[in-house]
Structure formats: C-alpha cells, structure tokens
Design a protein that fits this description.
Largest interface: A-B, 39 and 41 residues
Strand content of chain B: 25-35%
Largest sheet of chain A: 5 strands, parallel
CATH architecture of the largest domain in chain B: 3-Layer(aba) Sandwich
Number of helices of chain B: 9
CATH topology of the largest domain in chain B: Rossmann fold
Number of helices of chain A: 17
Structural class of chain B: alpha/beta
Low-confidence stretches of chain A: none
CATH class of the largest domain in chain A: Alpha Beta
Helix content of chain A: 25-40%
Number of strands of chain B: 16
Distance between the termini of chain B: 34 Å
Structural class of chain A: alpha/beta
Oligomer: heterodimer
Mean pLDDT of chain A: 94
CATH superfamily of the largest domain in chain B: Nucleotide-binding domain of ferredoxin-NADP reductase (FNR) module
CATH topology of the largest domain in chain A: FAD/NAD(P)-binding domain
CATH class of the largest domain in chain B: Alpha Beta
CATH architecture of the largest domain in chain A: 3-Layer(bba) Sandwich
Strand order of the largest sheet of chain B: 11-10-9-8-12-13-16
Strand content of chain A: 15-25%
Shape of chain B: globular
Number of domains of chain B: 3
Helix content of chain B: 25-40%
Number of strands of chain A: 16
Order of helices and strands of chain B: EEHEEEEHEEHEHEEHEHEEEHEHH
C-alpha cells in the first residue's frame, strides 16, 4: 500500500518564525526520509531524471536512502550535482523532477527535493568525503562569477583535472545564493559548506575582482588561462520607471536583500550595514524574489506587508510553496494592481498610487496581458516600497570583451554547449538566458564544462 | 599580502591617508575612479575615490575623513602592517581628460584628494590647470604642495581666513569664470559646495564635472542604492558615474538621499564610541 501523500516535513510555526531568520522547513529525520523514499516506484522509465536539468540519478539515490545507506546516496547525487544542499532547498521540483513523477499521476509525487536536501544535510552533518581530482591536465580555466553557474562549472572542470580559478566581484562566493536568497530559505552556512567542498577539491577563489573593471576577459586569456567561462549572472535591477522612484524608502529587491543577506543588516548594529523597513511595506512583483523580500520585511518588524502584482495568482511566477509560506506568515497579496506613481513628503516615500488591472489577450509570454481599468486609481500609505520586477544581465563583461556577441536583450549569445562568438570564451546561466532559476544555470554550466574540457584538450 | 596597509599618515585633525597594497587596482586605476572598501567581516562596504596610485609599487592611496562609525574606526584601528578585509576596484568611469584649453579644478575639504590626480592628468595631457582648494580652516587643508605641482596656479581659500583668502571657493571661481575663457570646471567636495559651483558655471555657460558621493552598497551596479537624477534621468553613480555634468544634477535629491540613514549612522557611531570607552576603562 503506497502512502498517497508525501511524508510531511516539519516547519517552524508561522507565528514564531516571522520573528526570526532561522530556516522555515526543518528537514526530515532518517526515519521520515526512509519512509518517503519507500514511496518511490523505482519505475524503469524514470521520467524524473530527464526532468532534472543536471540529470541526478533520482531512483538510484532514493533506493539508497530507503536502504539507509545515506553516504552512498550522497555520492550518487554528487556524481552530477555539486550543490545538492542548495538544490534540495531552492529548486522548483514541482515543475521539474516531481512534475513528471509517475507516482504523481495518481497520488502526490515523491518528495524528491526533500530527500535530496535530507541526503545533503546528512552528509554535511556526518562529514563529507573529499573527491580527489584526477591527475592535472595542465590546462587552466578562469571562471567569472561565483554564483550557481560558476560554482558548477568550476567543480566539474576541476573533477576533469583542470586548474580552475573563480573570480568573484563581491566579497563572498555564492552570487545570488549569498546576496539574494534569504537565510530562512537557504542558510548561508549551507552555501559556505558547499563552497568549502569546492575549495577542498582544489578550486581557487579570488574575491573582489570585478571582471571588466579590475581585469578584462582578454587579459585573463593572455595571463595563461586556456579558456574563460562567463557566469556573471543577471545582477542589474530593473525599476518601474514611474515618478517618485528616487524617494527615500524605495528599494530595488537587490538592494534590500543584499543589505539583509550579504551584509547581514538584520543584525545591525552588530554588523555595520543598516536597512530601514517601516511599518507599512509594499513589494511590487510576483516572483520568488518578491516573496523573499516580503517575508524578509516581516522579519525586520514591518506591521503590514502587501504584495502588489499586476496579474492574478494563476500567472504568478513564484513557486507555490513560497507564496504559501508568505501567506501563512501574513503577507497580504493584492492581485491585478499596478503602481503608477510614488508620492512623498520631504523626499521620503509616503504613498504608492496604483491602478486596478484586468486581464486582456495573451502577450508574447503567452500569459494574458494586464490592462488598466479606467478610473480605478487608489493609493496605499507605505513607508517602504521594494521593487522586485526582475533583473537584467550585467553588461560589464560583454561591454569589455572584444567580439563577444550579445543579443538585443543584452544577454551573451551562446549555444547549448555554452559556446560564444569567441572560441575560447564560454558562457551559461542568467548572463545567457536572462534571470532564471538556480538549477537551470547549473544545468547549462555543466554542458559548458564538457565543452570547455573538449576545447582545452585540443589546445 | 593583499590589502595590506603600507603606511598611514595623518593629514589633519580628522583626516588620514592610507597607502594600501592593491596591485590589481593600481594597475588599472585612472583619475576619477573609486574603490569599495570593507574593514572587517562585520564591516559595511564604503566607496572611496582614489587619491593616488602607483602601478609599479602595486599600491593605491586613500584619503579618509572621520565622519561616521566606519571612517572613525578606520582612523583609530587601521595601522601600518594591518590588512583591510576587502578592496575592490577600480570602479566607476574615469574622468574625461581634456588635452587643451584652460580648466579650473575646485576642491573642497577632503575633496582635495580626488581632485589631485585629475588635475595632474589634465596638466600632463596639456591643459592649463587653475586650482582652487578650500577648507573651513587652515588645519583642514592638506596636500597643498601636491596641488601646487599638479596645477599651473593655485588659489587657497578658508572660511575663517586662517590660510589663503577668506572666502568660499565659489568666489574665486566666479571671478575666474568672468575673467577668462574656461573649457571646463571640475568640482569635488561637499554636495552643497558642488551645487553652488554648478550654479556659478551654469551662469557663466561653462561646462562643469562633479563627482557624486551617494550611499552605495555593492558599487558595481547591482543594487541601485546610489540612484541620482541627472538631466531628468535616473542614473547609478557607481557605474554611470561617479562624474556627471554638474548643471544637470538634482542636488536637493542627492542631499536628501545622503541623509537617508542619518538615524542609523548616529546609532552606529554612539555604539562604537561607547565600546571604545568601555575597552579603555
């Protein structure tokens, strides 16, 4: 008899968790993990593996969990995924592996993400085995950006015997895992642990290097790197382009989250960077970043947090789990509203003026286009407004690299193997696709690592 | 050792210069650019405009006035031989260095430091450089000898007349603008000073370049904390600037945004002073 529903994962109570930055889901115990693993049908077709951008051997590791061999399960996952503790937490499993799970046709799909997280956490707790890289190939590769794409590409190249140096603009590796995703969803300790694993494999890291400013890609190539991987991400915040966006109290989600996550402003004044969150907070946008910003604002002491989204719940790009957590914590969701201007007194934000929207015919993205309803203007008193309507690719590397072709959206032109218009330069992740998910960046970076290995092998 | 402090020199009652080992920055530094510095693992990221550098020695020079918690802590605890946690740069767009005509470089207070390499580059490129350096009083002036070398002529002003002419920098600036043909003015100093220099230049129809110093976090275009309004458009000072046409800047907005965290800054400063007192007791 198969249990129809997933073994629930314990979570912090919403009433107490809004007062702390501790992780919300608490993880499985060994018993719970084995019980959930037993639900997997171990079906021959294994659609889950094809649904995973990095093709983790899902039935394989789940069988090992079921048998209680957690160390073997960790090794199985790590054959294709170098950041399992991250992916188990932030991957949109419901649209990937779990979305195609055979069990899911009749019952709730197997909790693959939860099991991946369990295995990674178990290994973290019990001491990870270091993988010895094969003998040195003599090739050196520079990786630009220590985010999900860069870390994945670096790890794979290192395991192929190449000498790898990761150059990162910020003072800590991790990219969006460090500055973007909050502590309560992805503890920074987990990111540090995964990065530490890469260091033990022999990947070199150099922080505070802004490629395109401190050094160019061409200079790296002339310094003796045989190839350069560009994983510089989509770090440029988009604003709304409406009047009043320079008022004090208006943040890009990037600024708000960077202050809190990377700079630990939630621990000001113990840490030097402050962040201001008033009593009334509005967040504009409907993605995971908007949910992260809203839930962070609550934890910083906001009395009321309202999410303003211009379409309806059905079109919301945020994961169902994130929206659910936000609502549980008391975030107010306002659908079909769009800010048109911001008002303030003495340079300080006081109100956001919005229009009500309705859904019209579908746009380029296939989603129904929101159109304003006449005379529907209303205003909301707010102290803080956080703009979470997406990020653009960072233009610095393309702008400073001769002959590196970009698309009209400013993304680097690259094929599925990460090959760009320059044979010695490869690219993957958000700099190629525009803002997307951690796991899709990792999947593309793995392809690029294979291509880089082939390229430097020929040199 | 990267980010090692090679030397520290007091330049006045609350101002010090720090020579820092930062070979990557020094190799590429150009006038007008800045670095972001973090003192330690709990520190904030602060932007500091490059005051000097030596590609040969692999060092940069930063001039810091103690005005808040981080700068006070830097002055008190960063000694020769110690290390800064992070130095990243060079950031921002370099100054556009003209090669002919006469220019005026106006420096206010600690703004002397960033003006110095710009004036030097302008002179080297072939322009005639008139310098104006102003401070509240004589003890707040520094690097006068360096400025004299970097400029063809130099006017010193102080608010109280303790050195040079008793005047604000805008007075000699207006006189020069009225007396001769000026190709461009650079002005770097407190926002209010830059605002009045910009007004004087607008009146005389002379282009003016200013270096904006808004609050920044990453300094690489990622957060937008440093948004300024220039010519009616929102620009990021860290990647679009820090230099902009002074007559186009919305100064009142810039000044208001500089004060956005005044309360938190006071809290951090008081806490730091209390900790220093307790450590001493």
């Amino acid at each position: 008899m198969i249990r129809p529903e997933q073994v629930p994962m314990r979570e912090q109570d919403p009433r107490s968790r809004v007062h702390n930055f501790d992780e919300v889901p608490l993880g499985y115990s060994e018993m719970e993990a084995r019980e959930e693993a037993a639900r997997c049908l171990k079906c021959k077709t294994a659609p889950c593996v094809a649904g995973c951008p990095v093709q983790v051997d899902i039935p394989g590791f789940i069988s090992q969990v079921e048998q209680g061999d957690f160390r073997a399960a960790a090794a199985t996952i790590k054959r294709t995924n170098n950041l399992p503790a991250v992916c188990g937490r932030v991957c949109p499993q419901e649209t990937q592996c779990q979305g195609v799970c055979t069990l899911g046709r009749k019952f709730e799909p197997c909790g693959i993400g939860r099991l991946e997280r369990f295995v990674a956490d178990w290994e973290m707790e019990h001491g990870a085995r270091t993988h010895e890289p094969p003998p040195a190939t003599g090739s050196r590769v520079a990786v630009v950006g220590a985010g999900p794409a860069g870390l994945t590409c670096a790890a794979d190249l290192r395991m192929l015997g190449h000498e790898v140096t990761v150059l990162e603009a910020l003072h800590e590796p991790g990219g969006v895992l460090m500055y973007g995703i909050p502590e309560f969803r992805l503890p920074k300790e987990v990111v540090n642990h995964e990065v530490e694993g890469l260091r033990r494999m022999g990947v070199a890291f150099e922080m505070n290097v802004v490629v395109g400013k401190s050094i160019t890609v061409d200079e790296l190539l002339s310094e003796g790197y045989g190839a350069v991987f560009v994983g510089s991400g989509a770090g440029l915040p988009r604003f709304l382009g409406i009047p009043g966006e320079t008022l004090i109290g208006v943040y890009s989600a990037n600024e708000f989250l960077t202050r809190v996550n990377l700079m630990r402003a939630w621990r000001f004044p113990e840490y030097d960077t402050p962040v201001k969150v008033g009593r009334q907070v509005a967040v504009v946008g409907g993605g995971n970043v908007a949910m992260d910003a809203a839930r962070t604002a609550l934890r910083l002491g906001a009395e009321k947090v309202t999410v303003l989204y211009r379409r309806t719940r059905q079109e919301m790009p945020a994961r169902v789990e994130e929206t659910h957590h936000a609502e549980e914590e008391g975030v107010d969701m306002q659908y079909l509203v769009n800010p048109v201007r911001l008002e303030g007194r003495d340079g300080i934000l006081s109100d956001v003026v919005c229009l009500r929207m309705e859904l019209g015919p579908p746009d380029d993205s296939g989603r129904r286009r929101p159109v304003p309803i006449e005379d529907s203007e209303f205003s909301l008193a707010v102290d803080t407004l956080i703009v979470a309507v997406g990020n653009q690719p960072h233009p610095l590397v393309p702008r400073t690299t001769r002959g590196l072709e970009v698309t009209k959206w400013g993304t680097v032109q690259a094929d599925e193997q990460g090959a760009t218009s320059r044979p010695e330069i490869f690219a993957a992740g958000d700099i190629v696709t525009g803002a997307a998910t951690v796991i899709s960046a990792m999947g593309a970076a793995k392809q690029a690592a294979v291509a880089i290995d082939a390229y430097v092998g020929k040199q | 050792m990267p980010n090692e402090i090679v030397s520290v020199e007091p330049l006045g009652p609350q101002t010090k210069s720090f020579v820092v080992r930062a070979p990557r920055v020094a190799a590429r530094a150009q006038p007008g650019q800045f670095v972001v510095v973090r003192l330690h693992a709990r520190g904030e990221r602060i932007p500091l405009t490059l005051a000097d550098w030596s590609a040969e020695d692999g060092t940069i020079t930063l001039v810091v006035q103690e005005v808040g918690k981080t700068t006070l802590e830097m002055g008190a605890s960063v000694d020769e031989g110690s290390e800064l946690a992070d130095v990243v740069g060079p950031l921002g767009e370099p100054s556009e260095i003209l090669s002919e005509g006469t220019v005026v470089c106006v420096a206010g207070g600690v703004g002397i430091a960033p003006v110095y390499p710009i004036a030097r580059a302008l002179k080297e490129a072939g322009t005639h450089v008139i310098g104006i350096a102003g401070a509240r009083s004589e003890d707040l002036l520094f690097w006068v000898d360096r400025l004299e070398e970097a400029c063809h002529s130099l006017v010193i002003t102080t608010d109280d007349g303790s050195a040079g002419r008793k005047a604000l920098v805008t007075e000699p600036l207006a006189e020069i603008l009225a007396a001769r043909k000026i190709a461009r003015v650079w002005a770097i100093g407190p926002a209010v000073m830059m605002k009045f220099c910009a007004q004087a230049c607008a009146k005389a129809g002379v282009p003016i370049t200013v270096s904006l110093n808004p609050i920044m976090v990453d300094g690489t275009g990622m957060c937008g904390a440093c948004r300024a309004e220039v010519g009616g458009r929102v620009r990021f000072a860290c990647v679009d600037g820090p230099e902009f046409a002074g007559d186009q800047v919305n100064w009142d907005l810039l000044i208001a945004r500089l004060a956005a965290y005044r309360e938190e800054e006071r809290c951090a400063l008081e806490r730091y002073r209390r900790m220093v007192r307790e450590a001493a007791a």
